[in-house]
Automatic annotation (TrEMBL), chains A, B:
Keywords: Aminopeptidase, Hydrolase, Metal-binding, Metalloprotease, Protease
Top-level taxonomic group: Archaea
GO biological process, one term: proteolysis
Origin species: Halorubrum trueperi
GO molecular function: aminopeptidase activity; metal ion binding; metallopeptidase activity
Family membership noted in the UniProt record: Belongs to the peptidase M29 family.
Pfam families: Peptidase_M29 (PF02073)
Listed Acidic residues bias regions: 76-86
Name of the featured protein: Aminopeptidase
Cofactor(s) it depends on: Co(2+); Zn(2+); Mg(2+)
Gene3D superfamilies given in the database record: Thermophilic metalloprotease (M29)
């Protein structure tokens, strides 16, 4: 086994999830994440934790959802029509086993890395939406654990990134095997700016695309120094972003980084906000998938997150939100659910069954202001060499 | 996908586990049982059941156990010694998540089929024994569900059986895709004999091997018509045996069918019983593994099962207990845990953390008597053509 797999497991278990002896740890292993699953299990045995392994197979999920569609179509006829006709399946909103798992778990480690990033592409969007809605309680129980999501560098992810497999392994391990303490210190400066600020404005001018000029309130919200550890309320490995939960968004935003929503490629999203909510939208590709997200529930049209990518170890977009949103010189906004960590105690932020991040490259013709002061221009932060205020 | 995979899933879900809408079903998918996992998930979606998939990887289990050994060895030195030196690891006897899973589950479907049937061969036996002991509560909770164990025909199992992959698929599906109702009717005759009987005697004469002449009481016990369905208290697919829970065993028994215990090949087991317990034993190969089983706890030296193989669709031994013990013209005895289904209400049978089956070919020079009457001679039952009483 590549020694970096074991190093990855050690960072995940010790730095990220802070697993201790006696912890009950649930590990979800995707189809091709077997080697990382083995390394994580070994590390958990060494730490004296209990381990339960789930099979995180997208192909199994697809089969279950397709079977459910068949049932909703009346079964028996053996002819799932596969289109949007008929009723969406009804799913149990309180599945006893999954609920019990996450209520009993101390930590949840999701090891992504399937065999096909578009494995669920032919599942009706309404089916997925119905399933996501029904699973809200399970998802919340899962997020109440010390959860961490990471990926094993599989061929399928390499392909999505347009890279050779060995090249992609280097990319992933460069992003994951970092000096996380040093990066956490660096990001603390941005967190201070956002914690003290009241209003953020992002302006980007582009040729052949709509400009971005969007403002949002962040007063009273707490930014998360996302240093890839539950000790920082940070749940992705790799990480390297600072994010908060904005509200009262107004203006227009354009996102030039492509993404995949529900197995559909989405490009050049343009959102128009009024009174905190999306009132108009467009996309050059995948507009239906975008519409489906925005129509999930009321919260799906409001922002749940403003994030500043600060991990300059990630040097290119790979169509994976785990990496893309952390890349230096990017800013992202997410529609949907806000993270509790950003909210004052007892206050509920934007609530939704979805959380979909959208990313802008801000390395050129761009600035971010906090309370009227420029904090970042063309990618440079004001405490960095080369910053022009 | 081979259509037989879907047929296998349908038999498992409908005939074996009797899954109904709203059931909470836990499916454990071994490393190479993916296709069957997909087919089962689709079937569960069609039936309107909830599904939770566990990753039943022996390699993950090995890694966890090896990591635990490392911890027991004092960790830090990075040198697991791999031998029997040092203390066995201590495992949590009440792991919260696994306990919660099986307490909440209605049914548990185990889809075997890893990549290497000897994947845990280098785990210290004492470690495995300590783990098995600690997991007794979880195992009991699991057996309180409508559990069914089956296998997907993988290359690794084909290799263990000494067969080509396609040949092995035919072997498995011939055994699984049967007319189970008809077989259940046939087996009901043997169940009647055992339910009404008080004492069983098995006699087999062999050249170049010890004879078998063993008696056991079955008075008051109830035989299970193991027709591969929880409706018959039968939990293996395929099945095709009638079994009960004997006691007060005396005499000697020789088992000529090879088997694998804890990844160790065991051949020609000879057991000597007095007052219901094994007082002497030998094996031509794997005697240490046998000894380890018998030393697990007090119940490991007493019989938990007498079983009569009646599935003549299985035409050869394949070193897999799931198939071997069901083969027509065989009888097996298991040391260890008895199944509750064989016991009168409120009475506890033989208790143990282990249950290990051992098989004899009874097609020649052999007879089984119940209360002095010959019921089976040289494989033929007394209700069959060719039976000589």
């Amino acid at each position: 086994m590549d020694e970096r797999v074991r190093e990855h497991a050690a960072v995940l278990v010790d730095w990220s999830a802070r697993v201790e002896a006696g912890d009950d740890v649930v590990v979800s292993v995707a189809e091709d994440a077997h080697d990382l699953g083995v390394a994580v299990a070994e590390a958990l045995g060494e730490r004296g934790a209990n381990v339960t392994t789930l099979y995180g197979s997208e192909e199994v999920s697809r089969a279950y959802l397709k079977g459910s569609e068949e049932r909703a179509d009346g079964g028996g006829d053996g002819e799932g029509d596969g289109d949007d006709g008929g009723d969406a399946p009804v799913f149990d909103s309180d599945p006893a086993v999954d609920r019990a798992i996450f209520e009993a778990a101390d930590a949840y480690l999701r090891l992504g890395g399937g065999r096909n990033t578009t494995a669920t592409a032919d599942v009706d969007r309404r089916t997925r939406r119905a399933y996501a809605k029904a699973r809200k309680g399970v998802r919340e129980a899962r997020m109440d654990t010390d959860w961490v999501s990471t990926v094993h560098p599989t061929r399928s992810l390499a392909q999505q990134a347009g890279m050779a497999h060995e090249e992609y392994k280097d990319f992933v391990y460069d992003a994951v095997l970092r000096d996380w303490e040093a990066l956490a210190d660096e990001m603390a400066r941005m967190k201070d700016v956002l914690d003290e600020g009241h209003e953020v404005r992002i302006v980007t001018e582009r040729e052949n695309a709509p400009d971005t000029d969007v403002t949002m309130s962040i007063a009273g919200r707490t930014a998360v120094n996302s240093a890839a550890s539950v000790a920082y309320d940070s749940h992705n490995l790799p990480s390297g972003e600072v994010f908060t939960a904005p509200y009262d968004t107004a203006g227009e935003a354009f996102f030039d980084v492509p993404m995949t929503i529900d197995a559909t490629r989405v490009r050049n999203v343009h959102l128009v906000f009024e009174d905190g909510a999306v009132v108009d939208f467009a996309a050059a590709a995948g507009e239906d998938a975008l519409a489906s997200v925005l129509d999930t529930d009321a919260g799906a049209r409001r922002l749940g997150e403003l994030g500043i990518g600060m991990n300059r170890g990630i040097d290119r977009f790979t169509d994976s939100i785990l990496f893309d949103e952390k890349m230096g010189d990017t800013i992202h906004l997410a529609v949907g659910r806000a993270y509790d960590a950003c909210l004052p105690d007892g206050e509920s932020g934007n609530d939704s069954a979805v959380h979909v991040d959208m990313i802008s490259d801000v390395s050129e013709n761009s600035r971010m202001e906090v309370d009227g002061e420029v904090v970042q221009r063309n990618g440079r932060f004001r405490w960095e060499d080369g910053f022009e205020g």
